[in-house]
Amino acid sequence: AQTVTQSQPEMSVQEAETVTLSCTYDTSENNYYLFWYKQPPSRQMILVIRQEAYKQQNATENRFSVNFQKAAKSFSLKISDSQLGDTAMYFCAFEDYKLSFGAGTTVTVRA
Amino acid sequence: EAGVAQSPRYKIIEKRQSVAFWCNPISGHATLYWYQQILGQGPKLLIQFQNNGVVDDSQLPKDRFSAERLKGVDSTLKIQPAKLEDSAVYLCASSLRGSTDTQYFGPGTRLTVL
To answer: Does B42 sit within 8 Å of A44, measured CB to CB?
Structure first.
């Protein structure tokens, strides 16, 4: 079974600064997908960023970027220029034939 | 484009009662998912449909949970009888084709079992 580990239950960051969320996963598969989802306090989950394992280039979406280290099975998310609207729970997820989520990291952006 | 719709948004029942949740996926999405999210945890997949067929229900407690997807569109998830540990948010999601596509989530139904 695939497992996804997010070792940081909570993170706090000052507005406009950068925060990095860690995620590790365990799999014996070679082809898979990795995601970061954001769940604001209203609880609707939305996709932040997606990475295909066969692509070496790290995915980027505006202020969000990942550091994908396939050999280390690591998939961290960097939020640059943090905004108050980034306050949410962030979930790392692994997908080969089904989506498995980590326990989440609560990010609080301080004004 | 309309998103994934779920109802009700909140439900409070007593243990041993039954409850049903409804989900309408994004139009044209072939795959529909039901997740259970217990407070403080990540979502856990309960069941996945491709059109109106079940792809994965390995984590669905089949003695009390059931789900169907009528005509490959709407879906209902039922719990009968409910237990205290079923208190959670039930999330519905859909994707265009299979599970490697981006999943779009609904707002969820928060169930409290007393």
So the answer is: no
